[in-house]
Amino acid sequence: MARGGAARKRDAAATPDSxxxxxxxxxxxxxxxxxAAGLDRVIHERMRLAIVSALAVNPKLSFTELKRLVDTSxxxxxxxxxxxxxxxxxxxxxxxxxxxxxxxxxxTRQGRAxxxxxxxxxxxxxxxxxQG
Length: 132
Description:
- It is a single chain.
- The protein is α+β, with helices and mostly antiparallel strands.
- It has 8 helices and 3 strands.
- It has a 3-stranded antiparallel sheet with strand order 1-3-2.
- A hairpin with a 2-residue loop joins β2 and β3.
- α3 packs antiparallel against α8 and α5 (46-57) packs across α7.
- The longest helix has 23 residues, at 109-131.
């Protein structure tokens, strides 16, 4: 049975070029592909990018405030915050307020630098893609 056009396009996109990049990236200007490969995978995930971005514009956020801002569940926020903490991008300060547990998060210098690098990579990727 003959394969449809969608299957051929999907296979072509998955077939690496001589540099090992998927064909879709190979078609983009060379520097764009290099920038895409250099993205920080810790920050690049949507929820972690939202967390770091929220902390970049707020000096400190409680768990509840951050959860509301990024619109996620307790468990999801906990998992992603832990990943960012493990990378050294954020810190958490756990304590009590009127006998109620309270966790506050802050962005570290390393986290700020990582976000700046990430944004620079994204801007370069956008420029290269628009030029190509």
